[in-house]
Amino acid sequence: MSTIAEPQFPTIGSHPQGTDSASPFEEMMSRFDLAAQKLGLDPGLYKVLREPVRETKVSIPVAMDDGRIEVFIGYRVLHNIARGPGKGGIRFDKNVSLDEVRALAAWMTWKCAVVNIPFGGAKGGVICDPQSLSRAELERITRRYTAELMDQFGPEKDVPAPDMGTNPQTMAWVMDTYSMHARHTVTSVVTGKPLSLGGSRGRVEATGRGLMLIAREAAPLRGLTLKGSRIVVQGFGNVGSIAARMCHEQGAKIVAVSDIHGGIQNANGIDIPALIAHYEKGKSLKGFPGTQPVSNEALLELDCDILIPAANENQIRQKNAGNIKAKIIVEGANGPTTQRADEVLNGKNVLVVPDILANAGGVTVSYFEWVQDRAGFFWRESEVNERLEDIMVQSFRDVAQMAEKYGVSFRIAAYMLGISRVAHDTMVRGLYA
Ligand code: NAD
Question: Is the dihedral of CA 223, 227, 232, 236 positive or negative?
Answer without folding.
Answer: positive
